[in-house]
Amino acid sequence: MADVNYDDVLETPVVDSEAHNLLRRILKEGGYAYVSMSTRAASGDVRAAEAAREMAWEQLHSGPVHSVVPVWRDAYAMACLYVAKCHYVRGEFKEAVRVLDMALIMGATVLRTDLVAAVGKAMERVNAVEESVNGSVNNVKLLMDQTAINLTEVLKILPKKSLSCKLVHKRSALSLEEFTRDHFLCGSPVILTDNMTHWPATTKWNDLNYLQKVAGYRTVPVENFLQVGKNYLCNNWKQEMLTFCEFLQRIQSNSPRVPTYLAQHPLFDQIQELRNDIVIPDYCFVGGTEMKSVNAWFGPAGTVTPLHHDPHHNILAQVVGKKYVRLYPASLSEELYPHTESRLNNTSQVDLDNIDPNEFPRIQDIEFMDCVLEEGEMLYIPPKWWHYVRSLTTSLSVSFCWTASPSSPTS
Fold first, then answer.
1. Quick one: DSSP state of residue 360?
2. What is the DSSP letter of 216?
3. Helix, strand, or coil here: 295?
C-alpha cells in the first residue's frame, strides 16, 4: 500500500474517533438520510458530503435559533469537514476555507479542534499559492490619514450637544487597585491610556497586507445598511457573508451606497491569528471574572451602534481609528425611553442623530458623558450604562465583556 502524503489531505482525528457516537445521536433525532449520506461521505463521496451538509443546513433553519437541536450543529460541522476534504484534495483551497468557516460560524464545538486545524492548513496552502503568483507586495495602510480630526467638521455629524457637557476622564497607567476603587466598585466610566502598547494588533492591524494574509479568504458575517449612520433597528438592515478581503475592500471604498459593519462577532474564536494579536486587559479580571465575550467591531466611518445598555462590565479597546461614544447612567433609563418589547428592552427608542422633541421630551435636558476614543485607548463602560457609538474614521475595535462573581460587591 502506498504511503499517504498528509500534505495532500486534511486530517480529522476528532471526526474519526467521534463519528460513530455522533451518528447515533443524529439517528435519535430522525436523521436517517443524513447518516446514510455521511457514511458515504466519509469514504470520499463528494456528492454525498454535499447532500449531508444540505440536510444539516435545513435543520439549522427549520425554526427559531433557540429551538435548534444541538446535535444538528455537530452534524453540519461534520458534513462541512467532509466537503472541505474533497475540495482540498482537488487543490481548491479557497473553497475549502470557505466551507470550514461556515462550520466554525454555524457548527457546535465538538469538532472545533478539527475545524481549526483544517482551516489553518488550508490557509497555508492559499497563501503559498498567492505568494507564488503575486510575489511580495508593498506595505499598504488600512487607514492612511491618522492625523487629528477636524472637531468643527466632526460636530456637524454628531448628535446635538456632543462634547459640550462632561467629558469622560482619562487616566494613564491606572493600577488595578485604583481601577477597582475609583471606577469598578462605584460604576464610573473611564478612558484607560497606555495599556495597549504591547499588543501586536497596534502595529499589525493597520497593515492591509497583513490582514489580507492572515484573514483575507476567511468568511465573516457582516451587517449592511442602505444609508450611512443607520443600524440594526432599521428596516433596511440585513446580514450577508463576505470574505474578509471583500469586507476590507468595502471599508476602503467607504461606499455611501452600502455601508458594511462587522459587528459583535466572535471573530477571535474563528481566526486564531487575530486572537494572538490582542491581550485581555488585566482590568477584566477584577471582581472574580467570568469572561462573557470578546467581540470585533470593524467598519468604515459612519457606522453607528444605537443607544443601548449591556448587563456586563465592558472595556472597548480602540485599535485603529477613532470613535465617538456617548454615555448615560442606568439611573436615567426612564428618560431614555427603552423599547417595551423584551427583545429590544435594552435599546432606546430615541434616535440620537434625529431626536423628535415632541415624542421624547424627557431626553432633551438630561446630562451625559461623552468622548472621542482615540487609537490606543480603552473605555470602561460599567454594567447597565447606556451608550451610543459612532465611528469617526475607519475603525477596528475590540470589546471585552465580563461579569463579577456573586461575592463581588458589584454583582
1. -
2. T
3. strand
**Distance linking the first and last C-alpha atoms of the chain:** 63
Instruction: Give every CB contact of residue 294 below 8 A, 6+ residues apart in sequence.
Output: 266, 268, 269, 275, 278, 280, 398, 399, 400, 401
Residues 6+ apart with CB under 8 A from 255: none
The three cell numbers locating residue 75: 452534524
Q: What is the pLDDT along the chain (411 residues), one digit of tens a residue?
A: 344 455 689 999 999 999 999 999 999 999 999 999 999 999 999 999 999 999 999 999 998 888 899 999 999 999 999 999 999 999 999 999 999 999 999 977 899 999 999 999 999 999 999 888 876 666 789 988 767 788 899 999 999 999 998 999 999 989 999 999 999 999 999 999 999 999 999 999 999 999 999 999 999 999 886 544 455 555 666 789 999 999 999 888 866 556 789 998 899 999 999 999 999 999 999 988 789 999 999 999 999 999 999 999 999 999 999 999 999 999 999 999 999 887 788 999 999 999 999 999 999 889 999 999 999 999 999 999 999 999 999 999 999 999 987 766 665
Phi, psi of 405 (to 5 degrees): -70, 160
Cβ atoms of 211 and 217 within 8 Å: the answer is no
Within a 10 A sphere around the Cβ of 339, how many other Cβ atoms?
14
Alpha-carbon distance 219 to 102, whole Å?
Answer: 7
Residue at 270: amino acid letter:
Q
8 Å CB contact between 374 and 334: no
Q: How far apart are CA 91 and CA 256, in angstroms?
A: 38
One-letter identity of residue 127: N
C-alpha cell at 223: 451587517
Identify residue 11 by its one-letter amino acid code: E
Instruction: Please state, in angstroms and rounded to a whole number, the distance separating the CA atoms of residues 20 and 271.
Output: 29
Instruction: Round to whole Å and give the CA distance between 183 and 173.
Output: 14
User: d(Cα 11, Cα 118) in Å, to the nearest integer?
Assistant: 7
